Amino acid sequence: MFFMNLLGINAILGLAGLLLALCTALMAFLVSRSNRRLRLRCEAVESSLAAMRRELELLSSISLKTGRRVKRFEQEYAGVTDRVALLELRGSTQSFDQAIDSARRGTDPGRLTQQFGLSRGEADLVTRLHGRKKTA
Questions:
Q1: What's the CA gap between 2 and 8, in Å, rounded?
Q2: Domain ranges of the chain
Q3: What pLDDT tens digit does each residue of the chain (136 aa) get?
Q4: Are the C-beta atoms of residues 75 and 101 closer than 8 Å to each other?
Q5: Exposure of 123 by Cβ count < 10 A (0-12 exposed, 13-18 middle, 19+ buried)?
Q6: Which residue among 29, 104, 124, 135 is least enclosed by CB atoms within 10 Å?
Q7: By three-state DSSP, how is residue 70 classified?
Q8: Interatomic CA distance for residues 66 and 72, integer angstroms
Q9: Residues contacting 105, CB < 8 A, separation 6+
Q10: How many CA atoms does the CB half-sphere of 33 hold within 13 Å?
Q11: CA separation for the pair 115, 110 (Å, rounded)
C-alpha cells in the first residue's frame, strides 16, 4: 500500500509537473507572439515617425522660402503706399499745371516733388521740359 500511495503521489506529481510544463510552454509562446507584435508595431511607429520628420523638414523648407518671398514682396512694394498717398494728394492734372508754372519760374525738381507730390522722375521731366533754360 505504501508503494501504491507512493506511486499515486508520484503519478500525481508527474502529472502536475507535466501540466506546469505545458502551461509554461504556452505562456512562453504567448509572450513570444506578443513581443513579436510589439516589435512590429514599434517598427511601424518608427517608420511613421521618420516619414513625419521628412514631411516636417519639407514643410519647414517651404515655409522658409515663403517667408523669404513675403519679405521680398514687402520690400519691393513698401513704397507703393507712399506713392499712392502722393497720387491722392496730387488729385487732378491741376497739380501738373501748377508744377509746370513753378518750373517756368525756376523752381528746382526737389521742390516740385515736395510741393506737388511728383515723383523725382516726373519733377525732373517737368523741369527739363518747362524749366528756365540755363545760359552759359
A1: 10
A2: 79-130
A3: 555 566 688 888 889 999 999 999 999 999 999 999 999 999 999 999 999 999 999 999 999 999 999 999 888 887 777 776 666 665 555 577 888 899 999 999 998 888 887 888 888 989 998 887 765 4
A4: no
A5: buried
A6: 135
A7: helix
A8: 10
A9: 132
A10: 6
A11: 9
